């Protein structure tokens, strides 16, 4: 059982991980080792103190170097579900369970809205995890939304299992090419069915009968990730100590609200880490 699980390798998650490490806490840090895509894509950052005008790629590189210098390594997996336990939290990532006493959500802003009906059918035909649920669709027809190139290997894995895959890519230049994969240009707008989902409707009005839908995105909506989490619109509700409504669960960065800024994310990650350290001390 780890002291802390930190989800997100962006500025908020990094800042928290650094501070937890300085306090000698054992940490599970989830997210891409490359860091934040948003930071990477920023052309010029002029409002992060101490570095002058810096490109996002340069700042991201410095973030990665700082993590490496502090011997912080991330687990390159998407966390798809978190449950409260007597001891803290259990986290599901790529079909593996992890346990931690405290939890920090530093997952960034969820810009992509889920499809209509997606949340309703989550666990009833809709899945966020290819490795966890792919085997359920052996020989079946599925739809897959692939939100970023880093999930293409998961699409390939699903295509090995399913008889037919309708693929919807959220970006240009998707490289998946297999006989049983049909790439469709019109995006999904709705998920429908009965007790279980059985169709997706596309923007052009086509209704495709499918046995399941996999949504592979870089972020999972906080309310789907942690059942019972208090949210306000797209943001997680926190107090000034970055505490959520769930004891032991903290949140920081873009996922708790605007302004979406690196300095704010770093500051909130710092506050959250200190609150987590205090919480762990009180629990002893
Ligand atoms: C084009 C652009 C330009 C910008 N320019 C500036 C600027 O000049 N100055 C400025 O201050 N800010 C700027 N920003 C905003 C800044 O990038 C964000 O405010 C900052 O990155 C937020 O940090 P964060 O750690 O909260 O979230 P993010 O940087 O979004 O990081 C969150 C990370 O968590 C990961 N994650 C999410 N869910 C999960 C999960 N379930 N399991 C595992 N990992 C998960 C994501 O993949 C992501 O890597 C810009 C943003 C963009 C897009």
What is the CATH class designation of the largest domain? Alpha Beta
Give the fraction of residues assigned to helices. Answer: 25-40%
Mean pLDDT across the residues is 94
Q: Give the names of the bound compounds.
A: flavin-adenine dinucleotide
Low-confidence stretches: none
Q: What overall geometry do the principal axes of the alpha carbons give?
A: globular
Structural class: alpha/beta
Summarize the structure.
The chain is 25% helix and 26% strand. The chain is an alpha/beta fold and 284 residues long. Helix 1 packs parallel to helix 7 (262-283).
Structural notes for this entry:
There is one protein chain. With 284 residues, this protein is an alpha/beta fold. It has two domains: 2-111 and 219-283, FAD/NAD(P)-binding domain (3-Layer(bba) Sandwich), CATH 3.50.50; 126-216, FAD/NAD(P)-binding domain. It is 25% helix and 26% strand. The strands form four sheets. Strands 1, 2, 3, 4, 5 and 16 form a six-stranded mixed beta sheet that branches. It has a five-stranded parallel beta sheet with strand order 6-13-7-8-9, with helices on one face. A three-stranded antiparallel beta sheet has the order 10-11-12, with no helix packed on it. α1 (11-22) packs parallel to α7. The two termini are 14 Å apart. The mean pLDDT is 94. Bound molecules: flavin-adenine dinucleotide.
